[in-house]
């Protein structure tokens, strides 16, 4: 399984993912699910994926190929707006799934992949899109400034309580790590290394790219601090009336 998420903030974008693709008692594999494309000085794209690994890799290969030679479906270089880049990724993903769909269906395997696309094209605002396996897509908004794909339920509560467009990029990165850690604690199919990138708007360059393995002290410190804070908040919850009553009253 997979968990990826992105935050669309006033200052820019934060995108993060785990790296686990399979898990079991004695079998764990890891692959990067966060891919950065800078095809020209006036644009930057970050693509995260959740779903069939073979579909994902073929989509990435086609995206790279289309940057080198003209293609019928277009390319990231041809997009004038971020939604056009999302539309292009959706069409490539759908073409890959259709090419292998019959064989996969016979084997009972899903070829579907969902993507998050974040980035900016010069002269246009930065943004964040979710691209469904069917090729359609939608954008994050000020009311819902985060998007998730994969195993999203365990990491959602922190996002619902804290995420807002006004967060700084650094706070957004901390929130993403907390969300990833919460998911990994509840689902063995999600796990480190965690990858996090920060994109300040209008820069066309990442300011930070982090890779946090399970043995990195910062990851352990954040996890322990978050858990301790939740415990303190729980201990400070208001008491029931019957707890406050005098004994024998």
Automatic annotation (TrEMBL):
One of its GO terms (cellular component) is proteasome complex. GO terms for molecular function: peptidase activity. It comes from the Bacteria. Signal peptide: none annotated. GO terms for biological process: proteolysis. The keyword Nucleus does not apply. Transmembrane segments: none annotated. Keywords: Hydrolase, Protease, Proteasome. This is Putative proteasome-type protease. It comes from Thioflavicoccus mobilis 8321.
